[in-house]
Amino acid sequence: MKTGGAFLLCSIASMLSACGTAASYDYDLPPSIDHPLLARLRGQVVGMTDAQREQVQVALVWLPVSPSEGKVQISQNVVSRPSLVDLAIDIFEKPPSAAVERADMMRYGQAEVVLYEDRNANSALDIVPRDAISPDRVIGRASGFRLWWLGAGSPAPPDARGYKPVAQGFSVTYGPVSTDPEPGDCAPDPQPGGQLHPRCTLKVKEKATDVAPQQPMTITVSSDPALQSYACSGFWGMSSEKSDEWPDDTAGWNSPDLRQQICGNAACNCTGGTCPLDLPVAGKTITSPLRCNESKTAYVWKDCVRDPKLCGTLFCHYGHGELAPNQPILQEWPCQ
After folding, report:
1. What is the pTM assigned to this prediction?
2. pLDDT tens digits for 151-165?
3. How many domains does the chain have?
4. What is the 3-state secondary structure (H, E, C) of 91-153?
């Protein structure tokens, strides 16, 4: 294996067989720092990339607590020391003051952990306006993990874990992670003669958990161009559900022209029992086709769009509906 040039990051399980020796991680030790250590995180890097190993660094990307157009993310440099088995991430500075927001009686911020190639060698992830090109290349992130900073106020109760910090100072949580529902979870209203109301669980959440600092987070690297959005000013990052997808009714998203592309019928803004069926835009290829329960009386579907004004933040409409037992099966949108 070359000791310079392309840098291959491999999963821990296959590192010895696929990555040769510890030479793949023979970084120089970072310079001594006079500031006290505030937090130390550990990560395991999984995947492969052609990044130059001497340029690979870790950054914290602080994202607005309540995102909207005009708000931007802020990067923070950390000291990272790769070794054969894991990645040590040392935090010596509090988050930038602009990254800490007030919510109720709390002053807190939230960040994601990203891996990037520092191509201009300035030891910082350069976040640039959306019409510019960052000199750095984002190659990975710790998906599902969120780093919190609580500077003032009482920690949130345990049932808010995953949405707000539950400890003073730095803390890390994993989840809640949302998944698509099973069609069998959708069923008609059992009340005789009643209106048919959706009973689908549109998002199934994996319980949020605290992550101890010594418990390694998984940082997945890839050549996915969507990762570069973290270096584009105005990107929203992961949603509160720790997903790449933001619901199309998220407060702060104001792009009606884009929303009409994924939710263009009268059912989108309708409530009550007299709404029409929530169906995809006619003639459009949607992100996830209709999935129905066994009796084909209930269905779910999904369609997504990226907002270029928000650096490609992904917004999705989670469609669902119910049919009466004697109602004809949908012809234009057959069940998968």
Report:
1. 0.81
2. 999 998 877 777 889
3. 1
4. ECCCCCHHHCEEECCEEEEEEEEEEEECCCCCCCCCCECCCCCCCCEEEEECCCEEEEEEEEC
